[in-house]
Each structure stands twice: as C-alpha cells, then as structure tokens.
Amino acid sequence: MTTEQQTSLEKKIEELKGSLTGDMFQDMDTRDQIHNLEMQLKGVKPMDSHIDCIGCGS
C-alpha cells in the first residue's frame, strides 16, 4: 500500500468518525465502514475469509 493510499484511508476513517452520532443503532453502518477501512489499513482480513485461497488458486 502506498503512502497516498494510507493517507486516503486515514482521512476517510476520520471523516466517518466525525459523522458518528452516539446512537448505537444509527451508527452501526458507519462503524462497520470504519472497521473495514481500519482492517484494510492494517492489512488484516476476517478469520473466515477464503478469498486468498480463491485468489491465488491454492
């Protein structure tokens, strides 16, 4: 991941965090987006994800 991509993800995360209302139910989708972006930023994937196996052909 390039520095520009990293900066872009960090900026998007901050924008989303700024839009949180404090209402758990209303913020659920936004928090999910934040979580997914943070996972991309850290290079983490879900435990049950088998995309790598399909993607690499193994």
From TrEMBL:
This is Uncharacterized protein.
